Amino acid sequence: MHHMLYLVRTLQKVGTLVPTFLLAMTLTGGFSQTNTALTKSISTYLHTLPASVTVSLAVQSLTDSSVAMVVNAAKPVPSASVIKLPIMIEVMEQVKAGTLDLSDIHILTDSEKAGGDGILKNYSHRSRISYADLLRLMMVYSDNTATNIFINELGMAAVNARIRIMGLNNTRLNRAMMDTTAARQGRDNYVTAADMNRLLSLLYRHQLATPVLCEQMLDILKQNEDTLTIPRLLPKPTVVAHKTGTLAYVRGDAGIIYAHQPFLLTVLVEGASTSDAERIIAELALICYNILR
């Protein structure tokens, strides 16, 4: 009991949603030794961060349901490119339904090109590109033009309906990529750490689209070119299937870490410079890996 009170007080200092944390304890019947080490290590690390930094985190073992920790996990955070995860899911659900064929060709127009991340903005007007390549560009290189093509063709309402079907209660697609006017008006895209872990769990367990399509999505996520966050400090050759996001005010990563005992980890950092946020995510990932491996 004394140890539990210490943890609750520590978590209150770092802004954790203590009721959620206590609920998780109740559901899992208390702490395993591994869970105790995980909770203490993460809470101690978070306590070292400046008060201006807000971390939203959800970590969950994929082999032991009693091993988990959440910090601000239900807090909606501007998603940056992490929102591309549910967009990818809706793409593959439409492939399953037969309403989208990844081998079909899209004719790129100049009016579709978006700034920011990606290479399609440099392609010639009326370039031909398959939807399979668009999907890979959206997830591996975080291509904003590819993303906006999917948002336009799938429909924002369809993506948000898929988000609800998956039980992601605090995630929402509200605007296209690089829509600065919408952002200034307060219409941003939002995710939570808990929602992204839920999505990744469904994907890992082949409970979305079809098992074959789930494996295709996991393979795409393993190719993510942005390795400055979760994978950064992990020992080689640890495989991480993940999607990152970057805005001036948030840096995030949501992924599956294929350690000996695989686990889910989503970290969203607000109130830090991009480089500091990347370091925080990487260090938290290493803490989790060293305990859960």
Briefly characterize the structure.
The chain has 293 residues and is an alpha+beta fold. The chain has helices at residues 2-13, 18-27, 33-46, 84-97, 131-140, 144-154, 156-165, 180-184, 193-204, 211-221, 274-292; strands at 54-61, 68-71, 77-78, 105-107, 128-130, 190-191, 239-247, 250-258, 263-270.
Summarize the helices and strands and which ones pair or pack.
Blueprint: H1 2-13, H2 18-27, H3 33-46, E1 54-61, E2 68-71, E3 77-78, H4 84-97, E4 105-107, E5 128-130, H5 131-140, H6 144-154, H7 156-165, H8 180-184, E6 190-191, H9 193-204, H10 211-221, E7 239-247, E8 250-258, E9 263-270, H11 274-292
Antiparallel strand pairs: 1-2, 1-9, 3-6, 4-5, 7-8, 8-9
Helix pairs in contact: 3-11, 4-6, 4-7, 5-6
